[in-house]
């Protein structure tokens, strides 16, 4: 125990138990994803790479997610606070099975020279929440990849979950224009970009972000998320 533990006592982010950010009993409730899948056909694929036959021009080239999304992970993400984020993540990873990190170690080989782009929040949402969870997670992933964090995108509107929307038209308008480039005429030719978000469900949000980046010339766009819903 260090002096810091007295000044800032640690509480489990999942259940509030004193002593660590992730208590042993909560640790057991985090399950790593054992198989990565192609975002477009949902069939298994090595490192979540999009099958060549599934990949269209503005599509995402691959998605890696580490854990199954559940209530505990939801709570942990919600409880992340900027000041403690690095500490928390350090402990978080240490507590988990090292196997869980294997996909990112392999993924790193594919990405090599690229940049990490957290999925941004709208200004309103950021003000409301006080922090962007995708950015915190990106900062931690950055330690593994040793890649710079980019700031190419702005989020112009919040999107609803596509599953909540009934008509095709509603779905189309929900996502259209959700993202745009921060610098209008930026040339992303040859860039490899790794989009980072906390959770992926249908993938519609990251797909939309990828389109914007690829239209600006991005060579490859991958996605890395902490959890898969
Ligand atoms: Zn706990
Ligand atoms: Zn596929």
TrEMBL record:
InterPro entries reported for this sequence: ComF/GntX_DNA_util-trans, PRTase-like, PRTase_dom
Any Pfam family hit: Pribosyltran
Residues in Phosphoribosyltransferase domain copies: 129-227
Gene3D superfamilies for the chain: 3.40.50.2020
Coiled-coil spans in chain: none
PANTHER family referenced in this protein's UniProt entry, alphabetically: DNA UTILIZATION PROTEIN YHGH
Record-stated family: Belongs to the ComF/GntX family.
Protein name stated in the entry: Phosphoribosyltransferase domain-containing protein
């Amino acid at each position: 125990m260090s002096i810091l533990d007295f000044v800032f006592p640690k509480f489990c982010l999942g259940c509030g138990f004193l002593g660590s950010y992730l208590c042993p009993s909560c640790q057991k409730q985090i399950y790593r994803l054992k198989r990565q899948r192609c975002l477009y056909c949902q069939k298994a694929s090595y490192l979540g790479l999009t099958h060549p036959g599934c990949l269209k021009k503005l599509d995402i080239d691959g998605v890696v997610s580490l854990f199954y999304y559940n209530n505990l992970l939801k709570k942990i993400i919600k409880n992340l606070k900027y000041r403690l984020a690095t500490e928390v993540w350090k402990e978080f990873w240490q507590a988990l099975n090292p196997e869980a990190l294997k996909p990112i170690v392999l993924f790193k080989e594919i990405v090599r020279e690229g940049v990490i782009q957290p999925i941004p929040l709208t200004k309103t949402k950021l003000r409301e929440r006080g922090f962007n969870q995708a950015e915190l997670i990106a900062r931690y992933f950055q330690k593994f990849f040793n890649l710079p964090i980019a700031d190419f995108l702005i989020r112009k509107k919040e999107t609803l979950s596509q599953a909540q929307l009934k008509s095709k038209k509603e779905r189309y308008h929900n996502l259209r224009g959700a993202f745009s480039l921060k610098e209008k005429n930026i040339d992303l030719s040859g860039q490899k970009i790794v989009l980072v978000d906390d959770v992926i469900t249908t993938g519609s949000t990251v797909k939309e972000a990828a389109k914007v980046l690829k239209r600006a010339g991005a060579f490859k766009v991958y996605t890395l998320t902490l959890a898969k819903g």
